């Protein structure tokens, strides 16, 4: 852990000041260079700066870089514009060729494709994640992983009073669980000896360099790639690591003697690889590898990024922890009465827990794992806000800023308050439209794995918070790193205390 120049509580006060439109300093447009110098000067504080700019410009902002650099863009967190982009006029706003080039390691995967090809492949994937054989196996492995690996590890940390990085632990947990869902193989990276996780580090590199590619002219990063220098050199090595991981894991699956595809009774085996390995559409090895990397990144990154922010917020809000435990208490009493040992809350236990889900949603509102969405304009259009966009423009939708806009969420928009998601009787969730709460995407590209992700997070959060008190170690700086993911730059260092039964 790196030393911090400021204590934890200062990050909240910084957020409060930065959301004041009166203090907003909008980017300056200079001759020749456009707005690029202003954007680069504030890159170190990208997330807060974006919120300041959008709050001060009415939720929308047009900008550009140097002439001829292809850096004309429109930034928005306006729900009306988002509904237009993601639903109403969806076909005019694909991810586009430049987005696919930025994430070329996943070329052909669901994350990078558009149009009819995307629709067909979404239908296929929806068939996989909605089938009982898949969801049941994912749920069972989640419970086993929490009971057999996470709980013993946390219990040891609590007993010894050892501080540790909760973010690293959650990323390792989700890497193992995602690999099991994708390949049917558990790499075993969440263990007492904490082996190196080169593939997980490589995924982080993909997202960090992907962020840099978004912020510079395409000609510049492509030249760096051709010369194999700077961050592009690092990315090339990361790609090799990920390709090797996929090949080695598939080989390990075969060496374990498990059938890939169907078992002897012609029933589908419960993992994603089995549904793709014999599909003629994925006969090309490069496409299959890119697709599997796509699924690994989607599974590990969304939940592995969100969980540390959940524990960060709960550690600072003991009143919210008490409400969650009160909601869990009848379930725990029933388990104890039936002689259950370690208290693990299974998917069926937490399925109907409304406040716990509200806590997850509130975290995703303030800390969306994919903090920005990118789209490309096909033909000239006028946004509901009245802003014009032109063919070839890049559109950036700031989910991070959207969760911090007073005009959308009220004067307490920067407060962590799960109650904002509940109806007055507190027994049901409010219906918040996806174009206002974009954590699970919206329109034709809405997240197909939403309920699986919620199930896994509920199981993990409920089990950890029932069994332990989480305490933040003082003196650390909690801030996002510069990445396409909203990961914590220095991790989340915590200590645990075991709760008495």
UniProtKB/TrEMBL annotation:
Keyword Cell membrane tagged: no
Keyword Glycoprotein part of the UniProt annotation: no
GO biological process, one term: lipid metabolic process
Entry keyword set: Heme, Iron, Metal-binding, Monooxygenase, Oxidoreductase
Cofactor: heme
Domain of life: Eukaryota
InterPro entries: Cyt_P450, Cyt_P450_CS, Cyt_P450_E_grp-IV, Cyt_P450_sf
Binding site for heme: 447
Molecular function as annotated in GO: heme binding; iron ion binding; monooxygenase activity; oxidoreductase activity, acting on paired donors, with incorporation or reduction of molecular oxygen
Transmembrane segments: none
Gene3D superfamilies linked: Cytochrome P450
Pfam family name, one: p450
PANTHER family: CYTOCHROME P450
Family: Belongs to the cytochrome P450 family.
Record's protein name: Cytochrome P450
Organism of origin: Triticum turgidum subsp. durum
């Amino acid at each position: 852990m790196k030393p911090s120049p400021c204590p934890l509580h200062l990050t909240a006060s910084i957020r409060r000041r930065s959301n004041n439109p009166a203090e907003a300093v909008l980017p300056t447009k200079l001759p020749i260079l456009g707005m690029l110098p202003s954007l680069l000067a504030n890159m170190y504080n990208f997330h807060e700066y974006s919120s300041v700019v959008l709050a001060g410009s009415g939720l929308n902002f047009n900008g550009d870089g140097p002439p001829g650099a292809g850096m004309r863009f429109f930034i928005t967190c306006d729900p009306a514009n988002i509904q237009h982009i993601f639903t109403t006029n969806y076909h005019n706003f694909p991810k586009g060729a430049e987005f696919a080039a930025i994430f070329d390691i996943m070329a052909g995967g669901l994350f990078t494709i558009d149009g009819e090809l995307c629709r067909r492949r979404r239908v296929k994937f929806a068939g996989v994640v909605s089938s009982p054989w898949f969801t049941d196996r994912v749920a069972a492995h989640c419970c086993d992983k929490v009971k057999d690996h996470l709980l013993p590890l946390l219990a040891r940390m609590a007993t010894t009073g050892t501080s540790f990085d909760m973010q690293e632990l959650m990323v390792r947990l989700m890497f193992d669980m995602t690999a099991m869902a994708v390949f049917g193989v558990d790499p075993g990276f969440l263990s007492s000896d904490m082996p190196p996780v080169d593939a997980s580090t490589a995924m982080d590199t993909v997202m960090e360099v992907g962020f840099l590619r978004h912020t510079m002219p395409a000609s510049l990063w492509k030249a760096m790639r051709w010369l194999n220098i700077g961050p592009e050199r690092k990315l090339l090595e990361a790609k090799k690591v990920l390709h090797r991981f996929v090949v080695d894991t598939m080989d390990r699956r075969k060496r374990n003697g498990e059938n890939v595809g169907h078992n002897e009774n012609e029933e589908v085996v419960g993992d994603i690889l089995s549904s793709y390995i014999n599909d003629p559409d994925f006969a090309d090895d490069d496409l299959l590898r890119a697709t599997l990397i796509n699924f690994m990144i989607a599974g590990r990154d969304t939940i592995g990024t969100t969980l540390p922010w959940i524990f960060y917020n709960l550690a600072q809000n003991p009143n919210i922890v008490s409400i969650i435990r009160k909601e869990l208490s009848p379930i725990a009493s029933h388990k104890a009465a039936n002689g259950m040992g370690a208290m693990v809350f299974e998917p069926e236990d937490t399925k109907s827990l409304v406040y716990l889900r509200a806590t997850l949603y509130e975290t995703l509102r303030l800390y969306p794992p994919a903090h920005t969405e990118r789209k490309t304009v096909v033909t000239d259009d006028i946004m509901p806000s009245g802003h014009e966009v032109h063919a070839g423009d890049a559109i950036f939708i700031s989910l991070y800023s959207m969760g911090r806009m007073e005009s959308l969420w009220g004067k307490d928009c920067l407060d962590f308050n799960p109650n904002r998601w509940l109806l007055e009787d507190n027994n049901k969730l409010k219906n918040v439209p996806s174009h206002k709460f974009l954590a699970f995407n919206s329109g034709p590209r809405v997240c197909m794995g939403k309920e699986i992700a919620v199930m896994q997070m509920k199981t993990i959060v409920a089990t950890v918070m029932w069994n332990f008190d989480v305490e933040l170690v003082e003196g650390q700086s909690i801030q996002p790193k510069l990445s396409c993911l909203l990961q914590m730059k220095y991790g989340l260092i915590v200590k645990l205390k075991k709760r008495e039964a």
